[in-house]
């Protein structure tokens, strides 16, 4: 139990670690670098879901449980996206006042963090001891640039640096709640473990393909973002191989 709490808290607080950089910046960040960071996080998430969560789901269950869980994750994120007002970090709409826009961005990041927290919780409930630590590390690794981008957006909306840092850090807090929820559900009801793992994988794959890749490829930086995605993927596979 203590491990899942520590893992969930550390992975969630990594959002604040990334946002911390913003306090020491004096210049601006180009759109190209933002696309590189988005693609890098997408590569990390892709490796974590396909090389970590999905194999573990198969080990704990089978292909049927994997298929059901993945589609449940995709369906859940689809419904959340359609019913919770939000806008994407890179594609803000004209005519939206600051307060509304900021809240919509926070809602979008919260949507991203729900499956990430669940993936940490259910990974600690799986039969493989190191899976929880691996997934918590992977999620924390991709949370850092995400926190940086959120803080950067808020600063561009004329929020002072310290307030932007605090808000960005708080967006990761939902991962602690969903992490504990995922752990409790799957650790006390054993047959839910493969469904929980594959649910988290499906939700993460939805975010990768629906949000992160399009956002990193929509402003003329497709080739650079593709390289960044592959580097993130290989970096995470390297870490999985070490574990």
Automatic annotation (TrEMBL):
Lineage: Bacteria, Bacillati, Bacillota, Bacilli, Bacillales
Location in the cell: Membrane
Pfam families for the chain: Zip
Entries under InterPro entries matching the protein: ZIP (IPR003689)
Keyword Transmembrane helix: yes
Signal peptide: none
Name used for this protein in its record: ZIP family metal transporter
Keyword terms of this UniProt record: Membrane, Transmembrane, Transmembrane helix
């Amino acid at each position: 139990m203590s491990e899942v709490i520590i893992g969930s808290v550390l992975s969630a607080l990594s959002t604040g670690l990334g946002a911390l950089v913003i306090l020491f910046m004096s210049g601006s960040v180009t759109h190209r670098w933002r696309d590189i960071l988005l693609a890098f996080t997408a590569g990390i998430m892709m490796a974590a879901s396909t090389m970590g969560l999905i194999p573990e789901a198969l080990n704990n269950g089978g292909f049927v449980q994997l298929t059901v869980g993945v589609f449940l994750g995709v369906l859940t994120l689809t419904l959340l996206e359609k019913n919770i007002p939000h806008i994407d970090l890179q594609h803000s709409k004209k005519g939206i006042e600051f307060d509304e826009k900021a809240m919509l961005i926070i809602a979008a990041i919260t949507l991203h963090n729900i499956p990430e927290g669940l993936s940490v919780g259910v990974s600690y409930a799986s039969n493989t001891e190191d899976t929880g630590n691996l997934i918590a590390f992977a999620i924390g690794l991709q949370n850092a640039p995400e926190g940086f981008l959120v803080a950067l957006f808020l600063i561009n909306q004329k929020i002072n640096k310290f307030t932007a840092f605090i808000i960005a850090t708080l967006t990761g807090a939902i991962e602690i709640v969903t992490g504990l929820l995922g752990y409790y559900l799957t650790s006390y009801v054993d047959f839910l473990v493969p469904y929980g793992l594959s649910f988290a994988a499906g939700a993460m794959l939805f975010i990768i393909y629906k949000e992160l890749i399009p956002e990193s490829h929509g402003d003329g930086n497709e080739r650079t973002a593709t390289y960044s995605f592959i580097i993130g993927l290989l970096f995470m596979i390297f870490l999985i191989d070490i574990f």
